[in-house]
Design a protein that fits this description.
Length: about 550
């Protein structure tokens, strides 16, 4: 019974009927929870009482629901309405491949694109152990964006661990559609093993895929006869006609792919849909370079006595204006053979030219003697320090010297108010090197405010020492005894007279230095590390 718009199936509100088939009706509906439109496939109540139809409906839900691939129809939900089960799927806008084939021939590049998407979807299903078993143009949907979706997994079979179906497949079919309980496939697209009623695996889908690809390229079915019995006999015993005999000139690679898909024995076909997709993908780049084929009729007088193969009309093929002509279907392969010879000649000339170029580069002394240049990046602290490398001067914080030949260089970094740094660097050929240079302040830190002179127990006045060691913080040693003070600091309460001061810690110490403390005054002393830097006191 047809459902009216506005009917609620669970949370879904029906909008309109899209179509009807042997299993039930399909409706456009709205999901108010997510604010999206969906498609709902409702199994008729009379069929819901049929265990076989109900089993196949549930099989479609389980099979498709286990898959998640852009080229396979997505399942959203499963439910029951007044005893009739329904399936909620994504809503597709477009047409089936069968409708597309009715309106106009499919261009070769577009046919390869559709085939590649279909093979990708099949590979995803086969990876899950699911074979379709009813692949045909009716079950391939082309969206408005040009994406192919595989539909109707109602006959899908889940393969066991060994790749065998859980139960044998029965083999009787009808010409137009699938008959429940008897038909397990569609005549014209079934594999030979399906016709014989043998167990099937993923290679059966590859045969069905080959019949669809043939039909897209040739514009006619590969095994089309007057009756279902004759069609099944042709699938079992006869080879399909050559695709180019149907007024189409194909690249040899594409013709081989079609022929391999349609092999009678499963072991002679592609081993998997992944292999098939790889072959199509490799071919898609080559096919885009082929020129269109123009087919012209040959006058009856010229065609007489040419011994044409088959019963079709005589024809001439002019390939891309290149003057290649075919007179009669019996000479079908001559232009393709000439084109292949020309292509091979061009490729050979390109390979020879490339080899000559490579050998010339290898043997050319000028090329061999070309130096490998290097790069030196100098990072400075402070950031605006001036960086000199031999006779070239740049500014920090990241001075970059490019195109340097291998060898030894003198690097100097300087800035006013800081102690300049000089070092030797060695540049290796073809290697980028980085140097970091931090300059030390040249001036002493500001002297803390002097404290008032202190008096010792005897009442004599004392003096002070302002001790620092460049910018370093080092422990102060006074008269051979380590104090708890670190540079820079002021030592107060010192008796007038001679004292020795040193520092310890860090990477290097400093020699003990003698200093004379003056009562009531503070004496500065700069203890630099033992690296040859100048020392001085005030």
């Amino acid at each position: 019974m047809t459902l009216l718009p506005g009917t609620l199936l669970g949370p879904y509100e029906l909008i309109s009927q899209i179509g009807a088939g042997g299993m039930g009706e399909v409706y456009r509906a709205r999901d108010p929870r997510l604010g999206r439109e969906v498609a709902i496939k409702v199994l008729a109540k009379s069929f819901a009482r049929d265990p076989d139809r109900l089993r196949r409906f549930e099989q479609e839900a389980r099979s498709t629901g286990a898959l998640n691939h852009p080229n396979i129809l997505a399942i959203h939900d499963l439910g029951t309405h007044e005893g009739a089960p329904y399936l909620v799927t994504e809503l597709l806008e477009g047409e089936t491949l069968k409708d597309r084939l009715r309106t106009a021939p499919i261009p070769q590049r577009k046919a390869i694109e559709f085939a590649l998407q279909t093979a990708s979807g099949l590979a995803a299903a086969h990876d899950k152990g699911i074979i379709h078993r009813d692949l045909k143009p009716d079950n391939l949907f082309v969206t408005r964006e040009g994406r192919v979706k595989i539909l109707d997994f109602g006959l899908a079979k889940l393969l066991g661990p060994e790749g065998n179906p859980a139960d044998p497949t029965s083999a009787m079919t009808s010409a137009g559609h699938t008959v429940p309980g008897v038909v397990l496939g569609t005549v014209g697209y079934m594999s030979p093993e399906q016709v014989r009623g043998l167990p099937v695996d993923q290679r059966s889908d590859i045969f069905s895929f080959g019949t669809i690809l043939f039909e897209m390229l040739a514009g006619q079915r590969a095994f089309e006869r007057d009756s279902a019995v004759e069609t099944m006999n042709a699938i079992l015993k006869e080879d399909p006609p050559e695709v180019d005999s149907a007024r189409v000139l194909l690249p040899p690679g594409l013709e081989r792919i079609v022929a391999r898909c349609l092999e009678k024995q499963p072991e002679d076909r592609f081993r998997s849909a992944h292999d098939l997709a790889f072959a199509l993908e490799a071919l898609s780049g080559v096919s885009s370079m082929t020129s269109p084929t123009e087919i012209l009729p040959i006058p009856e007088g010229l065609a007489a006595g040419r011994g044409a193969r088959g019963s079709g009309p005589h024809s001439a093929v002019r390939d891309g204006g290149a003057g290649l002509e075919r007179e009669g279907a019996g000479a079908a392969r001559r232009p393709a053979g000439r084109a292949r010879m020309i292509l091979m000649f061009v490729w050979g000339a390109l390979v020879v030219a490339l080899l000559a170029f490579v050998i010339g580069r290898m043997t050319n002394p000028a090329v061999k003697a070309a130096p490998q240049l290097a790069t030196l990046v100098v990072r400075t602290t402070p950031a605006r320090a001036r960086v000199s490398l031999d006779d070239k001067t740049l500014r920090g914080p990241a001075a970059t010297f490019d195109s340097l030949a291998a060898g030894a260089y003198t690097l100097r970094v300087e800035m006013e108010g800081y102690v300049a740094a000089t070092r030797d660097v060695t540049i290796e050929p073809g290697i980028a090197r980085e140097e970091s240079v931090a300059l030390m302040a040249a001036e002493a830190p500001a002297r803390p405010a002097a404290r008032a002179p202190a008096r010792d127990r005897s009442g004599a006045t004392t003096g002070s020492l302002h001790v620092f060691a460049g910018t370093q913080q080092l422990r102060v040693v006074l008269d051979g005894k380590e104090t708890n003070r670190s540079t820079p600091c002021v030592l107060t309460g010192l008796a007038p007279g001679a004292h020795t001061v040193a520092v310890k810690g860090g990477k290097a110490g400093a020699d003990a230095r003698g200093v004379s403390v003056v009562a009531g005054d503070t004496v500065d002393i700069n203890l630099l590390p033992r690296d040859g830097a100048k020392r001085g006191t005030r």
